[in-house]
Predict the 3D structure of the following.
Amino acid sequence: MDKKKRDLKNEYRQNPPKMGVYQVRNEQNGRIFIGSAVNVGGAINSSRVQLNAGSHPNRKLQTEWREFGADAFKFEILDELSPGQGSFAEQRAEVAVLEEFWLEKMQPYGEVGYNEKRKGTEERLRMITENRLSKESGSDA
């Protein structure tokens, strides 16, 4: 068992998974979901399993998956990066930059897609401040 495990680890090191950005396209209405991962193939498989199980975190995509059926959706890799030599965090950061590029290019929001616009730094800081202020005022009451 140890030799088999060691061989699998060596094979993984020699052939690390591709990092990249993928999309799930609803062929019936053209709406898209864009995601990214340090293991893009694994992420696509995971999304498909979650959608089939009814447990995908994107509720709009999940709803339409149920409505239109699996055959109405196409999974595609939009862009790949060669596996980096850095840490997992560094690799994830590289993929995140690539995902931001595709989100900007495709604009998969609202009627066009399933993604939610991410809040900018200013908006996130404002929300944190409001949350803290409401907690402080609630504890005084």
